[in-house]
Each structure stands twice: as C-alpha cells, then as structure tokens.
Amino acid sequence: MALPDTQTKTRFVVEFPINASPKILFPYLATASGLSQWFCDDVRYVEGQRLNFIWDNDNHYAEISGQRLNRAIRFVFLNELRQTVSDANYLEFSLDSSQVTDEVYLRVVDYSATQDSNEHYEMWDGLVAKLREQVGG
C-alpha cells in the first residue's frame, strides 16, 4: 500500500518564446511520439486518455485532464496503482501568440514537490532547448 504524498508542492510557472507556429508545436506537447522526442526517455499510450511517461526506466502514469487543440494540454499524474489522487502532481503546457510581434510563447505549469527554483528553471530551460531543436525554433 502506497503512503500518501506528504511533500510540500509548489506551482512552478515559466514561459519560453519559441519560433514555431502552434500547429507545428502542439503535437510535440500533446502526443506520445512528440513528447518522447524532447521531454523524457519514452512516452506510451496506455488506455483512453492515459499515458506512461518513462524516465530512467521508471513508469509515471498520467491522464489528460483537459485539452484545447493547438492551445493547451494538462497531464495529471496518477499514483502507483494508476488511480487519481487528491492534490496530484500535474503538468500543463499552453501556447500563447502575440498578435503584435507574431511570437509564440510556451507556458509551462509544473505542480510538483518543492525543489530549488533555479534548478527547476535550468531543468525546463534544457528541456525546451531540446524542443526548439526538434521544431527548428
């Protein structure tokens, strides 16, 4: 039986400019094949709206709790028994476009156990650099 997660959680929010249209960028944020190219070792569809994110041979199951095509997606992580839990970790990607400058911004909301905000930023900065390599932006 898994113990409840009692760690303090924070909502970490960061935005990155990306030189790619939302139509090109969104599949990298919302599909298993796209996410596995930059975000983690592998991502597999499990069933319905559920995915398995794999880091260092560890499985992390999540379900898509909300999606707006070419705009936003949220993944809510499940417990070891693949069940929803209260105050679950989640990850949200959203895309915003500036009509004035024609720039696209990727907004990341990472709600998880507290860690050093500088390290957290460096981690996301590195991941988004990999994403930019994939989309050419």
TrEMBL record:
Domain START-like: 8-136
Residues in coiled coil: none
A family per Pfam: START_2
Protein name, UniProt field: START-like domain-containing protein
Superkingdom of the organism of origin: Bacteria
Database matches in Gene3D superfamilies: 3.30.530.20
